[in-house]
Amino acid sequence: MNSLLVTGGRVIDPSNRFDGPADVLILDGKIKAVGANIAADSPRDIPKFSASGKIVCPGLIDLHAHLREPGQSAKETIATGSAAAARGGFASVVCMPNTSPAIDNAGTVALIRERAARESKINVFVAGAISRNIAGEELAPIGSLKSAGVVAITDDGHCVQNNELMRRALEYARMFDLPVMDHCQDYSLVTDGVVHEGYWSTVLGLRGWPAAAEDMIVARNILLAELTGARVHCQHISSAASVQLLRDAKKRGVPISGEACPHHFTLTDAVLGGSDRFWETDGKDLMASRGGGRPRWPSYDTNFKMNPPLRTAEDREALIEGLADGTIEIIASDHAPHCDYEKEVEFDYAPFGIVGFETELALSLMQLYHSKRLTLPELISKFTTGPARLLRLRDKGHLSAGADGDLTIIDVDREWVFDVGASASKSRNSPFGGWHLKGKALATIVNGAIAWQERD
Ligand SMILES: [Zn+2]
Asked: Tell me: the pLDDT tens digits for 157-168?
């Protein structure tokens, strides 16, 4: 097993309310001690990692990612997806079950876990499906999914439309103490919408996806969480009204939570009109617009097509507000790789989604920390305490003695340009290629071993 002494960093461990200079000692893959003078008590021949001048925090967790195995390995594999995650600073990811076939049975869960154990240097956790084949018609075998090791259930990519089926899913999930994660989208309201319904959908002649179609399912989930007592997690929240619904429900003590993605709290639907329009309007105050970094893109760029869609500047502000006041406790990427040939088509025909692992931390630092909306411990908690608590990963997300020896080393002030061509992912569908970013993971440590480290 791996041992490592990380010296000289500023250790931020939000779960233990620790923030200060300290060394971290990992022995046999587990956290042994965090403190000022532990080097003296460490084994003499232990490997050392200098984190002087850097942030040292619990290994970051991304609970929403598409690794595309089984069945879609032209887009991504467990090996390439987990390598991209490690580069982004993530020690743990949760893969979504909308693969082909879907992860709706114990055998497929076992297959992914075996492959991940062989091919990934980071922890890959599996989310199982709510319904068989993610068809929304009959429940997946939730008990046997739990026995096979899933950490949550979700039909992500789809949304269970039948409220009675969702209620029964919640009742089973509660028996097995699994959170139910939901992609909130009312199909009857969205129909074939491809962008946020508003000014830009009208100007560009693209079919609109109204925010109310998200809000309605968030409200449904709150009511069913209240009815059943099950823990419901609303994925990739994108609208102001959804944030307010979550805020009110949490005040009443409803077991509900939400996550936000960096693209939703960085961009708005003005990007669809092309880069000039965005930098002149909703983008003009972004940190990325300063220091010479104003990448260009055309209107109708399919790398800005995601589900839920990018919304307005008011929605973006509401997400940041929700992250700042604790309504939204989790940040996730919704890393969704697609092949070039799939995205290089007319806007209506392109698939939804973007890759996100390698830009997630920088965009979060820029929009939330460098902008002075969140403190560093508050921001780090969204990647550690928040997801670990929801998924009941008791030995992750904190640095208490005995916890798993997962760490992320971060330089919050490092300025760099994202080169999407050099990504570790198999896919290139990022809207952030060429962006000037600030803040970067320098190393990702898993069970005391260095899973990835920047080499100049
Ligand atoms: Zn989704």
From this structure: 999 999 999 999
